[in-house]
From TrEMBL:
GO terms for biological process: L-amino acid transport. PANTHER family: HIGH-AFFINITY BRANCHED-CHAIN AMINO ACID TRANSPORT ATP-BINDING PROTEIN LIVF (PTHR43820). Gene3D superfamilies: P-loop containing nucleotide triphosphate hydrolases (3.40.50.300). It comes from Devosia riboflavina. This is ABC transporter domain-containing protein.
Length: 230
């Protein structure tokens, strides 16, 4: 579904990601690693928000190395960035409507599906997104990506700042979304324990390089942890 071949990326002249090879299928693929390991840089590079400094990226067999983010969205790739993922001055409904500009099925049906998935948003539909709680705002951000009907959903630390209860619930929802919609999910996450509960495959990034890339089932947790201590 998504293939990276020797992708390097970073900011200006600085290279953060170093020759990353990756093959993501229709699975829940967790990208782990400590602060600054390069998780967000990888997500941004895949979503076309950062220019690759080298290598190639393909999505569903098409070369998208230089494809613009809006075009990638139309092709079926949605991202919930780590920061700035909602429009605070717009209402919940307006935020979702913006996402619904991409996609083909009737807009109302797609928005109703988000409210079915996140019923807590129903009473807040006309509330400004900037006045929501952290957990509610994350639901809007994920919902905005989902109304685009993506085939691959990129989630960058969606549970940051959430209480354990909200975080666990969102993790469960992420797995549910994957199973019900049969879409691939690339999940950048700090919390290895939680991510391993829902992931099919695990990548640990360390200093912008791949430390480990293995199926989640039966993974040696000490090795995962070792990737955080380099
Ligand atoms: N806009 C930027 N300009 C320059 N350097 C940046 C920029 N954004 C990130 N970096 C640097 O790139 C490196 C990787 O950052 P990145 O945001 O990808 O890490 P991360 O794994 O997502 O960390 P976290 O878990 O804290 O979100 C860090 O050293 C960071 O300082
Ligand atoms: Mg990050």
């Amino acid at each position: 579904m998504l293939k990276l071949n020797a992708v390097s990326s970073g900011y200006g002249d600085v290279t953060i990601l170093k020759e990353i090879d990756l093959d993501v299928g229709g699975e829940v693929f967790a990208v782990l690693g400590s602060n600054g390991a390069g998780k967000s840089t990888l997500m941004k590079a895949v979503a076309g928000l950062l220019r690759s400094q080298g290598g190639t990226i393909s999505f569903e067999g098409r070369d998208v190395t230089r494809t613009a983010p809006n075009k990638l969205a139309e092709m079926g790739l949605a991202i919930v960035p780590q920061e700035g993922n909602i429009f605070p001055d717009l209402t919940v409904r307006e935020n979702l409507s913006l996402g619904a500009l991409v996609g083909t099925r009737p807009r109302k049906a797609r928005m109703d599906e988000v409210f079915d998935l996140f019923p807590d948003l129903v009473p807040r539909i006309d509330q400004k997104a900037g006045s929501l709680s952290g957990g509610e705002a994350q639901m809007v951000a994920v919902g905005r990506a989902l109304v685009q009907e993506p085939r691959l959903l990129l989630l960058d630390e969606p549970t940051t700042g959430l209480s354990p209860k909200y975080a666990s619930s969102l993790f469960r929802k992420i797995r549910e979304i994957h199973e019900q919609r049969r879409i691939g999910i690339l999940l950048a996450e700090q919390n290895a324990v939680k991510a391993l509960e829902i992931a099919d495959r695990v990548l640990v990034l360390s200093l912008g390089a791949i430390f480990l890339n293995e199926p989640a089932k039966g993974i040696d947790f000490d090795r995962v942890r070792a990737g955080y201590h380099i």
